[in-house]
């Protein structure tokens, strides 16, 4: 599956739809998006769209500095994680399991150090995405 | 009124003793080295280190101030914004001490602390405008008193300090490279490259750095091999436009609120010389007084500013915490207004 966006609004709207399409399973398992892609590929816009779907009022800003930002949302929490600064961190050091609860939605940017662990968890809904900037257009691929 | 103040909002364990606007001690135990191997602040590691250190830092702070518990009249503690696991340590300790010694407890907003950090020698004149820039925050705030804050603008994505760090990484400075970008910028030609000034036509007072960050990334990709001259010129060009957007927003805020007499510049980025100089020029032009922290310790996270903020808050009518105060990781200055 591939999605092409020519604006920040479209990226946000697509993210919002993806979350809404998974609402029905949320009470059983957390929804986790991993976003791979370089700076400027639209990861923050995607996260903003997820927050919109969860009716979060706060402005969603980059979590690079503090690694994890957690916002109270519709149903559970929106957990925004960014491992850009911490390419060698382990899931235990992040206490990742405390966030992987039903009703929570996680967006994980630069997820490389957490991918093996996430794949091993059968109780979560994991959606892995790759974002690319292809000459002004943003291409989002489902991995 | 002597206050014991505690701040454990991020990766510094800090305890201070203040008396009105005087700082009697300001002990900061930094965890920077402990987090460095990860490349960033790890919330639960910060919590463990705060727990290990807080008692010793309190002891040291009282010793340096030459003050004993009987003389301390109240306790002040940061309850947000910050990392939840880190904030919890300071709050738990402050509440334990308040109970043990029978002292009133004041819950303080960390960002109000950054505003208060400049009032060691002067007193606030309201309304005042505060520009708070650090690795985690970029805000433009109007204070009508120390109990009434309005956020006029804030970053929509990256904080300015973070944009510096990310550009540093793109230029090969490692992490955190923000300070190295500023140093390189001082050697470079700031007109060497055209870069877009962020949020030029947004019509509001918000900031944004993701577009500029992307423009720098594309510029670096176009250059091919980077030599030292290119690096310093890119750093200088980035710094010029990043700061230009701040200066424009401050100018606009001063136009919108012509009765403002003081511009407070606080947070870690307040140590940046170029921005201090250009803000000063702007303030001189407009007859506004620029106030910056008197030392580097007061720019970065510290507890003395929490004691100073508690004192200003108490004078403005802030009440002590009655039962229990919980941490609020996304606390906004507007939630702290108690008018």
User: How would you characterize the largest beta sheet of chain B?
Assistant: 5 strands, mixed
For the secondary structure, the number of strands of chain A is 7
pLDDT average of chain A, as an integer?
Answer: 90
Query: Can you tell me the overall shape of chain B?
Result: globular
In terms of structural class, how would the helical and strand content of chain B be classed? Answer: alpha/beta
Helix content of chain A: 25-40%
Question: Unreliable stretches of chain A, pLDDT < 50, 5 or more residues?
Answer: none
Instruction: List the uncertain runs of chain B.
Output: none
C-alpha Rg of chain A, in Å? Answer: 14 Å
By DSSP, the count of extended strands of chain B is: 10
Any chance you could write out the topology, listing elements then pairs?
The complex is a heterodimer of chains A (143) and B (339).
Chain A: E1 2-5, H1 8-20, E2 31-36, H2 43-53, E3 68-72, E4 77-82, H3 91-94, H4 96-99, E5 105-109, H5 115-120, E6 125-134, E7 137-142
Parallel strand pairs in A: 2-5, 2-6, 4-5
Antiparallel strand pairs in A: 1-7, 3-4, 6-7
Helix pairs in contact in A: 1-2
Chain B: E1 2-7, E2 12-19, E3 22-30, H1 32-36, H2 43-65, E4 74-80, H3 84-101, E5 105-109, H4 110-116, E6 128-133, E7 138-145, E8 148-154, H5 160-170, H6 178-187, H7 210-223, H8 228-256, E9 262-266, H9 273-286, E10 289-291, H10 296-299, H11 304-315, H12 333-336
Parallel strand pairs in B: 1-4, 4-5, 6-9, 9-10
Antiparallel strand pairs in B: 1-2, 2-3, 6-7, 7-8
Helix pairs in contact in B: 2-3, 4-11, 5-6, 5-7, 5-8, 6-8, 7-8, 8-9
Account of the protein in words:
The complex is a heterodimer of chains A (143) and B (339). Chain A is an alpha/beta fold and 143 residues long. Chain A contains five helices and seven strands; from the N terminus they run βαβαββααβαββ. Chain A has a seven-stranded mixed β-sheet. In chain A, strand 6 and strand 7 form a beta hairpin. In chain A, helix 1 packs across helix 2. The N and C termini of chain A lie close together (8 Å). By secondary structure, chain B is α/β, with parallel strands linked by helices. Helices cover 45% and strands 19% of the residues of chain B. Chain B contains twelve helices and ten strands. A five-stranded mixed β-sheet of chain B has the order 3-2-1-4-5, sandwiched between helices. A five-stranded mixed β-sheet of chain B has the order 8-7-6-9-10. In chain B, helix 6 crosses helix 8 and helix 7 packs antiparallel against helix 8. The longest helix of chain B has 29 residues. Chain B is globular and about 65 Å long. The two termini of chain B are 23 Å apart. The model of chain B has no long low-confidence stretch (mean pLDDT 94). The chains are: A alpha/beta (143), B alpha/beta (339). The interface between A and B is medium-sized, with 26 and 33 residues.
